[in-house]
Here is the input.
Amino acid sequence: MGPQSTEVETPRLAEAKIGNDVGLLLAKLHATGSLLNNKALADYGLRERSFSVLTLACSGLEPTQRELADFLSLDPSQVVSLVDDLEHRGLVKRAQGKQDRRAKIIVSTAEGRRIHNKARAALEVCEQTQLAGLSEDENAQLRALLKKALWG
Amino acid sequence: MGPQSTEVETPRLAEAKIGNDVGLLLAKLHATGSLLNNKALADYGLRERSFSVLTLACSGLEPTQRELADFLSLDPSQVVSLVDDLEHRGLVKRAQGKQDRRAKIIVSTAEGRRIHNKARAALEVCEQTQLAGLSEDENAQLRALLKKALWG
DNA sequence: AAACAATCGTTGACTTTTTCAATGATCCGT
DNA sequence: ACGGATCATTGAAAAAGTCAACGATTGTTT
Here is the structure.
């Protein structure tokens, strides 16, 4: 993997016009973020993916696995693995779909919500670390722009 | 992988507070972007990764493979594969490091720059597609914020 | 209502990507 | 000149991603 240093890099290459390529900027920020996030989530036996699933399970929106796959840009079979893992550890349950008996709704258990709260707190620290260079306003701006880019 | 639809999704789950998780927003935007980018780059036998390497090789910055690995958050062995591929196709060359004879400097060939120009144009179209929901100003803002988050 | 195609979750096979340890060559500090 | 560190490279192992098929169920068409 790349650099695991906690110190800030001062990359000579950042000058390249590649620094204007949104795709690369996203990839890089996502990569460094994932590293930090996964490290923080390891304390709870979670990774970015399983945390996302757990978050949706805790949201009260009662997502189906298909919705999870679509929303997280995953193959349905990957969702099966993620839910299997979380279910075996008692953090979520599969419930039968209400209108559609093929679908399974993923809901959190009390233990799942407990773990999720702790993990979420740890992630917030991570996020602040990663976005330390941004002011509070800029932080909010970034969120807003990302959301807008994703779904108008 | 997830949905390959060109139509805009209107995801029920976007409401979840997960929509404020920068990590997930980055992951999702990066995922959908990669899909588009790789599809566009396929015409030139490139992918996001190899395009990034080619871009740096064309930048005149004469990056070493180690610098590429750090900058792109890749394992050094992955850079070997990427450069191998580009070199076999005559798009880049390995040159000996100037101060450090261990290091190898990656520079583009004329053909590499030709392909890169074409690919870059194709990617710009992609980018506009992906960020269609953003105004010109917001587009620039997003770039600026991502860069600032990465290196102050 | 019977037949049909489509969708959901799941499984398993397969490919690609990532991760990691080891190696020879070279650099740097002492 | 010695020892430790860094560079590119290799190869193996682990993880992630892709894809086709299946039973169960749904919605649609006849």
Summary: Confidence is low (pLDDT under 50) at residues 1-7 of chain B. Chain B touches chain A through 66 residues (CB under 8 Å). Residues 64 and 90 of chain B are 18 Å apart (CA to CA). DSSP finds six helices and two strands in chain B.
